[in-house]
Design the sequence.
């Protein structure tokens, strides 16, 4: 069965709004920046595991069993959580506010 797409005046108004395009551009830019940062840190860690495992095996201090690899691995995880928190903060603040303003303009 073929799906019929029906656009309402609200959907058309939102799609043609310059503020909506601004919102999409800001959200896309933030998403790409945060994704790039997470991937860079993750792949740097993986490359270090692959090519320089001796650095990761180095003890944190003399007479300490824990190596440098443990805190670096934990950093990768915590870093991704923090960047996720940054996105959620912006999405729940600025992006939601802009979305509500755009919807209000279109419905008015």
Sequence:
């Amino acid at each position: 069965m073929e799906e019929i797409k029906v656009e309402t005046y609200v959907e058309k108004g939102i799609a043609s709004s310059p503020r909506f395009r601004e919102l999409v551009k800001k959200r896309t830019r933030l998403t790409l920046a945060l994704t790039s940062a997470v991937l860079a840190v993750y792949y740097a860690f993986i490359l270090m595991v692959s090519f320089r495992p001796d650095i990761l095996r180095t003890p944190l201090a003399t007479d300490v069993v824990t190596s440098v690899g443990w805190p670096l691995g934990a950093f990768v995880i915590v870093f991704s959580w923090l960047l996720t928190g940054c996105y959620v903060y912006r999405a729940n603040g600025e992006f939601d506010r802009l979305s509500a303003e755009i919807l209000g303009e279109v419905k008015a």
In short: The chain has a mean pLDDT of 90. The chain has one domain: 9-107. Residues 53 and 69 are 9 Å apart (CA to CA). The radius of gyration is 22 Å.
